[in-house]
Amino acid sequence: MLAGRLENVWVDFRDQRRRLGRRHAWRSALREITLDLPEGEKLAVIGGNGSGKTTLLRTIAGIYEPTRGSAEIHGRVVSVIEVDSGAGRDMTGRENLQLLAVLFGLSRSELRRRYDHILSLTGLSADDLDQPVYTYSAGMKLRLHFALAVGCAPVVLAVDETLSVADEAFQAHCIESMDELSRRGTTVVLASHDLDLVTRWADRTVVLDQGRILLDATPAEAVAYYRDRFGDQHAAHRAGEAGVRVVGFTS
Amino acid sequence: MGTRPPTAVGAVAGSVAAASEPGDLGRPFVSICIASGRREHLLRRCLKSVLDQNNPPSFELLLCADDDPAVKSLVDSMFPSGSAVTLLSRGSPARLRNILLARARGELLLFLDDDVELEPHFLARLHHLAVDHPEAGVFGGPNVTPRGSSVFQVTQGAVLASLAATGPVRRRYGRHHPTLADERWFTLCNLAIRREVMVEFDPGLVCAEENAVLGELHRRRVPMVYDPDLAAYHERRPTWRSFAAQMLKYGRGRGQLLARRPRLVRPAFVVPSLLVLYTVLGAPLALWHRAALLPLGLYLLAVAAGAAKVARSVRRVSVAPAAAGLIATVHGCYGVGVLLGVVETAVQLTPSRRAQKARWFNLLRVLVIRQLRIRSKRSLVAIAWPLVGPGFLLALYVFVFRSVFHVPVERYPVYLFAGLLPWTFLVQTLGTAIVSVSTEPELVRRARFPYELLPISTVTTMSLYFLACLVVFVVFLGASGHLVLGVLPALIAPVVALYLLVAALSLMLSLIDVFNRDLRQILANLLTVWFFLVPIVYAQNMLGERLLILRSIDPANMIVGEFRDVLYYGSLSRPAHIVELMVVCIAVYVLALSIFRRFAPLLPKEV
Predict the structure, then answer these.
(1) Does the beta carbon of B90 lie under 8 angstroms from any beta carbon of chain A?
(2) Distance (Å, whole) CA B496 – CA B310
(3) Is some CB atom of chain B closer than 8 A to the CB atom of A149?
(4) How many Å apart are CA B494 and CA B566, to the nearest integer?
(5) What DSSP designation does B599 have?
(6) Which ipTM was obtained for this model?
(7) Using a CB-CB distance cutoff of 8 angstroms, which residues of chain B are in contact with residue A63?
(8) B574: part of which helix (H) or strand (E)?
(9) Dihedral in degrees, nearest 10, Cα atoms B263, B268, B270, B274
(10) What is the DSSP letter of A91?
């Protein structure tokens, strides 16, 4: 069964350049995206910077409405896309969890039922949870958001490349949690630059470039295709992540 | 004792044959159908009362639990070796009961709630009645208060069984003589229906599904037998709040049913709603015509008489005030529920859409709490700051306009504050609300929700401060002897109008601010111009002839005038003026909301 489906989706953004006396132009961040999201599938999205991964995740999460086409998800979608202060930097971890849970559509009774479980998923101490979020590191914020996303028992979970800010143990825990969710029928969509992880973890992978799906295939095929076509950029990106300045490539 | 273990579902053919003369061999006589919520402790008592029946006919037990595995393990432990069937499914009670209906094989279908207890002879009595009245299709009795209930619960039961509270429906809650009955006598918590006359429950109805079935059977002239010995002990609500919620739910179900099948309307079902409508719309007319209070007086007398009778029936005089409150609660909540149910059905508000609305209302509540908390962080005066603003302005303007410009108005501070109070609410709120969307990208880009809740939560938060200021001001007026108490209810209309006007402006400003940040720079200047066009610091008659028209077209001008009429002059405006104000503010709000919603899909891309 399908948890959702995107059909011929286009997402346009207003061109922010000033054009006095003229109408704004539009730029397409996603073009002609058609994607089935079967229940329980682990779907990876790979592509260079600006290829449209985050826009795709936000469209799946219902945050962006397609300019053309249709995006239908049958149930609750939760996304972990940005690691930010959530409900407010002065609010404590607990207060953030409560507000964001309601934002994701949990009713009061559901929140009461799941609150302790969500708190335990964060792995943060009671002291930490009572501190304002501006005192949190990026990894701690991620723990908060990821625990909430998993604890909400979504039909679709969309995760961006935010996992890289977590320590190794929590990253492993996140992967484990996503596997567990998938076993229980949640569709997990992960955008990542970690091609080894994608090969190891995903059931299916799509390659995005300039807002279009270039390939929708098995992880091994998709990664091979991506390396073949965008190998140089990918190497540059990974080197950049490692703090290396790339001055050039030879074939 | 004569107690016999329950017959397995089609497993103990001998006992089935022995007990079910009217039925076929191998078929149980009664199918007990229970749709259970997540109330394991109550269900345990219910099942025990089924196990403890004296000389029961053969029966099968079918349970449909709301996807709760704990219920299944409970049933398995109480009815070992598969002698009961538990199905796990999700949906409305009506849907769960339809699932049971499809599985039931008995000649009689006995519907029980999971929070009832049966008397030990219940099933035997039901068997006798079914044999003695082969022409009847429906059998039932009252649901009564369980032994050992608290005084509040006993009073609640007595109130439900009283004529003053529930009218002809009271027979459902108290024992009456056995007789042929109609659909008003029964509830689904202990109701038996012959399989051959049974119709499916309407899954769209919540809490009135049996009324629909019984109404249909009544229309088909199926005889119904009421017997006081078919009583079930039905758990009463432990608190006033849960009792009110129960009445609201009953009313809502009835309202949905009446909107779908208007032919089932009976006067008793709509009287509470008429009472509510009178209280909201008719009673305020007493401000102009005292005679409008006459029905209210008669009603209060009836409630007092009903409460006295309830106190007599439970033999405790002390419960009379609580009984009066409970009777009024029944009428108010049931009446509101019926109106809600009718409106929901008319606008096709399905249960899932209603649940979503409840979630968004909860989000609004959480956003308001968040704003109050944020104000209290890193601040000594904390949430009291918005209260300081009007006080400071009052002192300043009193000095400038009375001492320097000598504005010729008596009791000038009161005159000024009556206008300044709504105005400062408007200004402070607009100043905060204009950035309420553009400063919240973390929320807007995290999930899809009605973004209009952001400016509206700001308005709601600020309105709490406004109401606090208003109360302080009214108390001050009362203490200084300048308050005309009788006209105070007339403040409700301008307060609501002010909220709507400020919400509408906040929606528009916050929307514009997302796309263009110029407006926030000049908002203060625009508001200053508006301030001097509204007669807040000066008297209305000081306004030039040409500007007098503002009193008729500027909603802020109208609102300030209304506040001043009540708080300063102690008089009432003409009703037509109030209606005009409300119409203008509602129209402005609806327009602003529709424009905001039209552009809402663009907000996550722009913040």
Answers:
(1) no
(2) 39
(3) no
(4) 10
(5) H
(6) 0.85
(7) 445-448, 604
(8) none
(9) 150
(10) S
H or E, element range at B193? strand B190-194
Is A62 an 8 Å CB contact of chain B? yes
Percentages helix, strand, coil for chain A, rounded to the nearest 5? 40, 25, 30
* DSSP bridge pairs for B310: none
- Within an 8 Å CB–CB cutoff, is residue B601 touching chain A? yes
Query: Which pLDDT score is estimated for B12?
Result: 30
- Closest CB from A64, A78, A99 relative to B366: A99
Question: Which residue out of A96, A99, A136 would a mutagenesis test of the B interface target, given it has the greatest number of B Cβ atoms within 10 Å?
Answer: A99
Pairing of strands B190-194, B108-113: antiparallel
d(CA A19, CA A29): 20
| Contact (CB<8Å) B604/A64 | yes
C-alpha distance from B351 to closest chain A C-alpha (Å): 14
Of A84, A87, A108, the CB nearest to B370: A87
Rounded to whole angstroms, how far apart are CA atoms B602 and B445?
11
Q: How far apart are CA B497 and CA B558, in angstroms?
A: 10
Q: Residue B193: which of B144, B129, B263, B143 has the closest Cα?
A: B129
**What tokens were used for A226?**
């991506």
Cα gap B26→B29, rounded to integer Å = 9
Tell me if residue A26 falls in helix, strand or coil: strand
The structure tokens listed for B430 are: 């607009």
pTM > 0.80: yes or no: no
B97 Cα distance to chain centroid: 25
pLDDT tens, residue order, chain A (251 aa): 888 899 999 999 887 776 666 666 788 999 999 999 999 999 999 998 889 999 999 999 999 999 999 999 888 899 998 887 777 788 889 989 989 999 888 888 888 888 888 988 888 888 999 998 889 988 898 999 999 999 888 999 999 987 777 888 888 889 999 999 999 889 999 999 989 999 999 999 999 999 999 999 999 999 999 998 887 665 556 555 555 444 444 43
Nearest Cα of chain A lies from the Cα of B446 at a distance, in angstroms, of 7
> For position B110, what pLDDT does the model report?
93
Whether B363 sits inside 8 A of A103 (CB atoms) is yes
Distance CA B548, CA A132 (A): 53
Q: Which of B443, B605, B606 sits opposite A103 (nearest CB)?
A: B443
Q: Which two tokens stand for residue A11?
A: 């997402």
User: Does A65 lie at the interface with B, CB-CB under 8 angstroms?
Assistant: yes
Q: Of A62, A63, A108, which has the smallest distance from its Cβ to B362's Cβ? A: A108
- Residue B493's identity, in one-letter code, is A
Is B442 in CB contact (< 8 Å) with chain A?
Answer: yes
Separation between Cα atoms, residue A221 and residue B199, nearest integer Å: 57
Q: What is the DSSP letter of B534?
A: S
Contact of B139 with B227, CB cutoff 8 Å: yes
Chain A residues within 8 A of B602 when measuring between CB atoms: 14
Q: Is residue B146 helix, strand or coil?
A: coil
CB–CB contact A88 B358 (8 Å):
no
- The DSSP code for B202 is -
The runs of H, that is alpha helices, within B57-160 are: 69-78, 93-103, 122-132, 151-160
Nearest Cα neighbor of B122 from B23, B28, B49, B223 is B49
Which residue in the set A88, A95, A107 is minimally distant from B362, CB to CB?
A: A107
The CA-to-CA distance between both ends of chain B, in Å, stands at 75
* A176 inside 8 A of chain B by CB: no
Residue indicated by tokens 């039961």: B157
Q: Which residues pair with B34 in a beta bridge?
A: B63, B112
| Out of A90, A98, A105, closest to residue B374 by CB | A90
A158 contacts A78 by C-beta, under 8 angstroms? yes
Domain B13-148+168-235: CATH superfamily is Spore Coat Polysaccharide Biosynthesis Protein SpsA; Chain A (3.90.550.10)
CATH 3.90.550.10-classified regions of chain B: 13-148+168-235
Helix (H) or strand (E) holding B58: none
